[in-house]
Amino acid sequence: MSTAAALKVERPKAERRALESVVVRFAGDSGDGVQMTGGQFTEAVAIAGNDLATFPDFPAEIRAPAGTTYGVSAFQINFGGTKIFTAGDAPDVLVALNPAALKVNLGDLRSGGLVITDSSSFNDRNLRKAGFTNNPLKDGSLTKYRIMEIDISKLTLEAVKASGLGQKEGLRCKNMWTLGLVYWLYDRDRQATTDWLNQKFTESPELARANIDAMNAGHAYGETAEISGLEAFQVPAATLAPGTYRNVTGGEALSWGLVAATQLSGLKMFFGSYPITPASSLLHSLAGLRPFGITTFQAEDEISAICSAIGASYAGNIGVTSSSGPGIALKSEALGLAIAVELPLVVINSQRAGPSTGMPTKTDQSDLYQAIWGRNADSPLCVIATRSASDCFEVAIEAVRIALRHMTPVIVLTDGYIANAAEPWLIPDFGKYEKIPVTFHTQVEGFQPFLRDPESLARVWAIPGTPGLEHRIGGIERDYDSGNISYDGANHHRMTMVRADKIAKIADTLPEQKPEVGKSGGRLAVVGWGSTYGPIERAVLNVRERGGDVSHIHIRHLWPLPKNLESLLKSYEQVLVVEMNTGQLRTLLRAEYLIPAEGLNKITGQPFKVADIEAAINARLESKP
Amino acid sequence: MNVVAPTKVLAKDFASDQEVRWCPGCGDYAIVSSVQRTLAELNVAKDKTVFVSGIGCAARFPYYMATYGFHTIHGRAPAVATGVKLANPELDVWVISGDGDSLSIGGNHLLHMLRRNIDLQFLLFNNEIYGLTKGQYSPTSRVGTQSPSTPMGSVEYPIQACSFALGAGAHFVARSVDTMRQHLPEVLKRAHAHKGTSFVEILQNCIVYNDGVYAAVTEKDVAEDAQLHLQHGQPMIFGKAKNRGLRLKPGALELEVVTVGEGGVLISDILVHDETNRMLGMILASLEAPNYPVALGVIYCKPGPTYEASVAVQVAKQAAKFSKLDVNALLRRGHTWTVAP
């Protein structure tokens, strides 16, 4: 008879305490299914109507030795009945499936937070591997937290007995047992996970059954086991705008945005990519969407990935390539070619911590210099950034729109955090999106390949297969008037300037930069770009609620910058640039506008905590009258 | 009303208006003229023809063709051409490259283009030297090649271009010589007719930095004894008297040169060229002077499915998984939930 059944004591739901929002972190070995557990919990809280943000944080090693600290995988979710901007500063609940997971994650837990552990995993061997000299569950070192020691391994094995699984396979269901318990903690429905397990294990129904039994047993344990300190909660649904929602990661939203841009332009898309963490999910996602007019090409290297995309753009497709910083470095020479021959191209950089291999699975924002300036010669292009998972959809469409309208490469900066993190997304109505107009040049009379639109300075796009427009282009400098190769110095000056002017003119079509929150003018502007959006927005809102005069400016268009940005920034007494690098946007803003922007910088591979930004804001608001 | 007969396309119709900037006497002149003649004889559409090149002397080639042309970056022409072909399979794509461009800096791209079997023609102008950078030894230079960067002679073993191509899984491998004005166009026509990547090595003389590198193969007085002209289904006979041939050495996996009529050798002992036999192709590709004649013509030709054709089959199957290709439906696949107003 199971322990849960033995302790069967029903507790009425009315006892549940209401919470505005909760931060839960699941942590275990990278083979424990922690990411999958987190993903399922995310679905369940979304279906219950909570707003949420997640932060999957996993090691670079696929299966690091079990029990080690460097093999710990974690998934954090912040969900609640209010608007959620970040995955949360400090977990309220930590599920630690082994000592290493406790060791790595305990420091982040808030005082008084709840730790759920699998007591049987706290044996001498695992404790040693995790670097504990004493068992922290026994030595009194955890008194500032509430500790739930449960023999999850044993209870899981009991729960899966009926499915006939062996010990090794049975223990794999530990994550589902804990998920069931956490579902009970927050009163979330198990049906979606049950359906998902049945579908996932269609071929092996015994595995579906074992996992479902484990989850239900975890849930029943919560419901029936009378354990002091284990309190159940109620997190009310958030007030969200009406409509149809789904959870989306940045990787998914980017791929769907690219599909959308393909449909809006009526062109085919060519996606050349070489596997690299954390950018590969885009290649995987698009490979499943080829019938939408997308050719996916897994190239032999990063250089081939971009060169094939350039070849495809030359032939009239939308060429797209995707990578992370080190791969983008390999693509730089070819980017120069795309700039020289003025072809549309979208280059997506899922930034990660560097330099070199750095920390492939950890997030960073340190490729801004590389994107704007990181090539030989004067080689301007357009740079835009995504701020969140759902924003990726819009940014992908905009990148294609700019590339086609201005005949230029566009670099999209996203990062490892955005690529993997999920958030609820109010699904837009695709029918309302503006088409992306494309004209291939066909007029033979007066043709030369570098004929320009007088407004945008974009050159004509004459693709192979067009009768009478046979022409040659290449990396050698070309004559402004004829497009033929030219080594003339004055012509090179003119061409260099027109390439720069063409990019500068993109700003003519950009919307004015507006503060996300706050007004133009005042004590302090907090400026950010990319995935710092959530923590900055939350921090600024928090300070403003207490009466602080602070605004949040979040820049999507990093090159060219919006035309009014200079006057907007100069309307504040102080400018604080918050970045996950040593101050790259700050340098850019100082160089462009000669403003004394200051920086708040963090390069730990983890997103900013709201509290850090709030403290920096407060320090500046207090520093001057 | 006058009926205007379609004008015959001439080689000169494929020449662009650009001044050719190769050194006087360069083998590239003969090659460009053979290519122009071949395209005229094949009567291809200029607007559907694209020449893609990397960097080097050979890579200037597209500027001299009145077709579409893309002069890209060093070594990357196979990758760019792959994108061109996959973006629009209707286009007839030719890649022009040299030994440094395709076997040194671009070796990786050539390798993968060949094994993917993208339908295009790849012409490798092999002059065994870096010309445009002023005469350094190249990956095909013979051991001991003296050059500005190897004043005491190069110590690296050279790459055999055709062996490389076969090793990479090429389905069509041929070899010709820049100045062979009958042979080269015939090889180019075979290459053009082949579906898949057609790899053609053209032995090309660099008159400035490596003049006479192929003299032992191409000079008039030695050519007949130094060249083996391959014909599918024909015995591999060569020599001034057309009586020398190749046969399999008894008891060894090795070819030997024999003379028909000497030592009891009959014409029936001579190996018959089978261009679909890859193992034979590997041996033929590696024959070198002075012990063997150099094999010219189609060394290997065995068509297989092209990359683009195989992908098209997959995508058609994949399309069946979508009831309709609708973005709104795509965005709503999987779990969704509705928040009521």
Quick structural gist:
The complex is a heterodimer of chains A (625) and B (341). Chain A is an alpha/beta fold and 625 residues long.
SSE blueprint:
The complex is a heterodimer of chains A (625) and B (341).
Chain A: H1 3-6, E1 17-18, E2 21-29, H2 34-47, E3 51-57, E4 72-80, E5 93-96, H3 99-105, E6 114-118, H4 124-130, E7 146-150, H5 152-160, H6 167-171, H7 174-185, H8 191-200, H9 205-224, E8 233-234, E9 243-249, H10 250-265, E10 269-273, H11 280-287, E11 294-298, H12 302-314, E12 318-323, H13 325-341, E13 345-351, H14 368-373, E14 382-385, H15 391-406, E15 409-415, H16 416-420, E16 422-426, E17 472-474, H17 489-504, E18 522-528, H18 533-545, E19 550-554, E20 557-559, H19 565-570, E21 572-579, H20 584-593, E22 598-601, H21 610-623
Parallel strand pairs in A: 1-8, 2-5, 5-6, 6-7, 10-11, 10-12, 12-13, 13-15, 14-15, 18-19, 18-21, 21-22
Antiparallel strand pairs in A: 2-4, 3-4, 9-16, 14-20
Chain B: H1 27-42, E1 49-53, E2 68-71, H2 77-87, E3 92-98, H3 99-105, H4 107-116, E4 120-126, H5 161-167, E5 172-177, H6 183-193, E6 197-203, H7 215-218, H8 220-226, E7 227-229, E8 237-238, E9 244-248, E10 255-259, H9 278-285, E11 294-301, H10 307-319, H11 327-331, E12 337-339
SS element count, helices of chain A: 21
Relative strand content of chain A: 15-25%
In percent terms, what proportion of residues of chain B is strand?
A: 15-25%
Question: In terms of structural class, how would the helical and strand content of chain A be classed?
Answer: alpha/beta
What's the β-strand tally of chain A? 22
* Major sheet description of chain B: 8 strands, mixed
Which regions of chain B contain 5 or more consecutive residues with pLDDT less than 50?
none
